[in-house]
Amino acid sequence: xxxxxKEVSLRRIWKNEAYDFxxxxxxxxxxxGQAIGLELEFEDAEVSVGxxxxxxxxxxxxxxxxxxxENQLEKTNHDHLGKCLTYASVLDATTVIWIASKFTExxxxxxxxxxxxxxxxxxxxxxxVELWQIDDSQPAVKFNVISAPNEIVKQATMRKEQGELTxxxxxxxxxxxxxxxxxxxxxxxxxxQTPRPQYWFDVALGKSxxxxxxxxxxxxxxxxxxxxxxxxxxxxxxxxxxSRKEExxxxxxxxxxxxxxxxxxxxxxxxxxxxxxxQKENWKEAITWLVGQTIKFRVxxxxxxxxx
Length: 308
Hints:
Low-confidence stretches: none
Radius of gyration: 21 Å
Distance between the termini: 46 Å
Strand content: 25-35%
Structural class: alpha+beta
CATH class of the largest domain: Alpha Beta
Helix content: 40-55%
Oligomer: single chain
CATH topology of the largest domain: Trna Endonuclease, Chain: A, domain 1
Number of domains: 2
CATH architecture of the largest domain: 3-Layer(aba) Sandwich
Number of helices: 10
Number of strands: 12
């Protein structure tokens, strides 16, 4: 005997948008982040912006940039679209998440247009929220992403803005693209940045100010994974990690280099390895190693961050 799946009205669970729905979203940012592929860290709710208030202000844990979340229990309207743009500009957000029970075709097209025509530094997400239950079970929430930044368009825009890339930067972009593809295949980490022509590739750890920053050094034929701690967070995190050094190295299975550049204000905890990186056909082994270490580092350090 099979149960019957049926949709539930949002108003059955959240009677009031400001007093019920917004607080629930604030406490469940992880679910929203999983839907769109970002790690979100709550900052504040009902943030004043002139005569109005942004529903939720969060941070992208991977970059530390601000994220504006505007939510509705009803279908989208022009008023909330305007608020999304206003709040993002005033609060200097790089990500806008618009959550509603229904998106009109015009508003979906508006978000798609913004994603295709704005800088690759800003992204707009349209998220449809639904409630479903089986027979008389407790309702379960489902977030459906109906609009998101187009990575192909963003990469093309980035290339155009940066002009002709040097051979080194082309190599970096190709390496990180292959690395991201391999890491995505594992399904272990949902939130991954767009590859860029640079020597590092960051991965969030769930807390702003501390993240993974993988490196690709063509001059030394060396790749590495490192925990990168912003100077404003050093006093909070470095002593804590050092106090658990033996446990960390045991779980990762390697001896790490702790704070190799003590004169630098930002601090790092590093593991590196040499590979023959001159030819792309030799990258497979290096990328496989880096993907494995990235997953290990993230599991260990993300858990310890939550335990603090």
